[in-house]
Amino acid sequence: MKVLLADDAEVVRLLIGRFVESLGHELILACDGIEAVERCMAEKPDMVLMDMLMPRLDGPEAGRQIKTRMGARWVPIVLITAVEEVSKLADAMEIGADDYLLKPVNFRILEAKIKAIQRTVELNRKVHEQANKLAGYYDRAEEEKRVARHLMEQLVNRERLSDPQLHSWIAPAESLSGDLIAAARTPGQVLHLMLADGIGHGLTAALNVLPLTQPFYAMTERGFALADILVEMHRKVRQVLPVGRFVALAFVAVDFAKRSIEVWNGGIPELRLYDGRGGLQKRWASRHLPLGILSADALELETERFQFSQRANLVLCSDGLLEARNEAGEAFGTARLALACAGQPAAEALTRTVEALADFLAGTHCHDDVSLAIVDLDPDATLPLPEPANPGELPEIAGEARWRYAISLGVVELKSLHTVPLIMGFISQIKPLAHAHADIFLILTELFVNALDHGLLGLSSDLKCDADGMEHYLQERAKRLAALREGRIDIELAGHDLGGRTMLRVRVSDSGAGFDWSWLEAPDTHRPSGRGIALVAALCASLRFFGNGNAVEACYLTRQIP
Amino acid sequence: MTAIVEIDGQTGRLLLSGQFDFSAHRDFRQACDEILASAAVREVLVDFQQVDYLDSSALGMLLLLKEKAAAAGKALALVNCRDTVRQVLEIACFGKIFTIR
Q1: What residues have CB less than 8 Å from A516, skipping those under 6 apart?
Q2: Which of A200, A246, A288 is closest, CB to CB, to B22?
Q3: C-alpha distances in angstroms, A384 versus A50, A334, A367, A557?
Q4: Nearest to A289 among B55, B57, B92 (CB)
Q5: What burial class does residue B97 get, using C-beta atoms within 10 Å of its C-beta: 0-12 exposed, 13-18 middle, 19+ buried?
Q6: Which of A8, A464, A467, B35 is buried most deeply by CB count within 10 Å?
Q7: Taking the domains of chain A in order of start, what are their residue ranges?
């Protein structure tokens, strides 16, 4: 230890100083109070031994100054005093001194005091070190959180949530949310929405949900279906997260054109559908385990479909909302949610729910992340399809195609490949077609589905007619596809330059029996089926069937870019 | 939360009480290790009789216990789940991978 000894008597400095040095400590000397304060500042001793009475500045006052000027650093001060100064001594101890020694100094006691102080000094130093370490940890954690929050926001890409039919809200329990809401439209304008809830909260929870965003956005953009995206997300979560970590997830696909909802719910509280008058029309309870628990091939993909005909609100929320507790320990619960949002326009429903929660909590902090998404299921909300690019005369195609893309699929490939997203992956690389993805997706989907469903599988569109039609149709389709033994579909795309515009020619042919395409010449608008083909015809500059109807060619002209 | 281990012949019972959430991490792990280390135990019962709340971190801990119990060759069941606990287990569809009694 470094010990400062302040005394105006040289004999005392010599006597006590020698003794202190003999105990193995480093000694610094001062002759009065002012010098004691100065040397203290310069040398930063571990303890101070100081006479009560000194010229210029006495011991108690010097001690007070040392304490003030050393700030957070604790320097124990021991005053050396005669017994009669007892009341001054008490005052001194009150303003800064830590202990005292009676004159004449007993060396046995002095040694014991120095040892006791040394113990305290060491303890004090340890506490300081730990406090510094903690402060360091804290700063580092804050910085990591800041970076993580930025990364999260970039990866989650909030502006993509700006869908006219979607209203959503997230309130993290800590600075980072383990809840995630993501929404995007497929090229066919189907709204994909997911609400994910990673285990726990804060950074680790946020990290849990991160692997979901990339497959969700990338695959939705290319037109993959809900189930295919789920499989990929599950694979990613399994790959990235350790055992005991998982992500509860609800995935919704809303096709406004077909007025259908498809839902997969793994571990999220019931999704609820409230009609315009506030009635509860349908509930989708959790049917599946959250993502990341089962092995990759054990994931159940079964979804539930619903046809909507009137305007309604589809409400999704994380358990953080329903379980938010007020001071009295009550949970917010579904009744309060329904009261706030049922029967309201979607935007209003969201605002009212957020307000209702704030009122309910009355300043109490939420213990879990809260997220809420409301989809405005408006039957009229079908985004208008783009006007046909050029319904007029089809210009002569002169010369070779600039590029050609051909794919020929046998039975095995037809069962396993996601053909249209696969081709869209290629189309997305062709610059002149950048603005036409939605049109091309629709044309490819309709022509491919036509070739497979009607050409090879021999399905009749009449199946779709009744209320559960789509369900029956899809079941029958899956059955026949599984049983398919032979067949082939050829697809060829070619891009031509036409005076600054691009002409895309799509040919699809199948090995099926074909169909009577003569009615297409005069389409019957009341006919429930064939709408898809009529739509393709409207989008394209030309659409022609050949032979017995198992070969088709569509010519699509991109819009003039202004 | 407290976790008490009771071993009765081949059955090891993990009596939990209070709020089962992340703060229970250490106690729960210690109790699990104790019960799994007992060679006599063939079946582990996690008893929720005294649990009034569990969150997703608790579900994660149960998954870890399931993994460890399987590795130790011991059966595992969740018992005496009351309403709120049952509800959380139901939403997570844990009935598909756990025996719940």
Answers
A1: A549
A2: A200
A3: 90, 36, 43, 19
A4: B92
A5: middle
A6: B35
A7: 2-126, 157-377, 403-557
Residues A246, A236: contact at Cβ < 8 Å? Answer: no
- Kindly state whether A215 is in contact with chain B, defined as any CB-CB distance less than 8 angstroms: no
Which pLDDT value is given to residue A395? 63
Q: Any idea what DSSP says for residue A331? A: B
C-alpha separations of A96 from A1, A59, A92, A99, A555 in Å: 20, 10, 6, 9, 93
* CATH number assigned to the domain comprising residue B80: 3.30.750.24
Residues 6+ apart with CB under 8 A from A45: A1, A2, A3, A4, A28, A39, A75
For residue B92, the chain A residue with the least C-alpha distance is A267
Residues A117-150: b if buried by 16+ CB within 10 A, e if exposed: bbeebeebeeeeeeeeeeeeeeeeeeeebeebbe
Nearest chain B residue to A291, by CA:
B92
CA gap B17, A267 in Å, rounded: 24
- A528 has a pLDDT exceeding 50: no
Q: How many domains does chain B have?
A: 1
Can you tell me the distance from the alpha carbon of A26 to that of A24, in angstroms, rounded to the nearest whole number? 7
Record: contact B56-A289, CB cut-off 8 A: no
Cis geometry, peptide bond prior to residue A104 (ω within 30 degrees of 0): yes
Q: Minimal CA–CA distance to B20: which of B68, B55, B72? A: B55
pLDDT at A162: 82
For tokens 């009596």, the residue is: B15
Query: A302: which 2 tokens?
Result: 């079964």
Do B63 and A243 lie within an 8 Å CB cutoff? yes
User: C-alpha dihedral over A270, A271, A277, A281, to 10 degrees?
Assistant: -80
Position A251 scores a pLDDT of 97
Contact in structure between B46 and B66 (CB atoms under 8 Å): no
pTM: 0.74
Helix (H) or strand (E) holding A169: strand A166-171
Of A200, A290, A294, the CB nearest to B92: A290
Domain span including residue B11: 2-100
Work out the minimum CA distance from A246 to partner chain B, whole angstroms.
Answer: 7
Q: Which CATH architecture has domain A157-377?
A: 4-Layer Sandwich (3.60)
What is the complex's ipTM, to 2 decimals? 0.85
Q: Domain A403-557 sits in which CATH superfamily? A: Histidine kinase-like ATPase, C-terminal domain (3.30.565.10)
Can you tell me the mean pLDDT for A475-482? 90
Q: Which long-range contacts (CB under 8 A, 24 or more apart) does A18-21 make?
A: A19/A107, A19/A110, A19/A111, A20/A49, A20/A114
In CATH terms, is domain A2-126 a member of 1.20.1440.230? Answer: no
The chain A residue lying nearest B64, using CA atoms, is A244
* Residue of A305, A329, A350 whose CA lies nearest to A469: A305
Distances in Å between the Cα of A345 and the Cα atoms of A79, A198, A275, A277 are: 78, 29, 10, 10
Closest in A197, A199, A289 to B93, CB measured: A289
Q: Which are the contacts of A498, defined by CB distance < 8 A and separation ≥ 6? A: A395, A397, A557
Q: What is the pLDDT of residues B30-78, one digit of tens each?
A: 999 999 999 999 999 999 999 988 888 899 999 999 999 999 999 999 9
What's the pLDDT at A152?
75
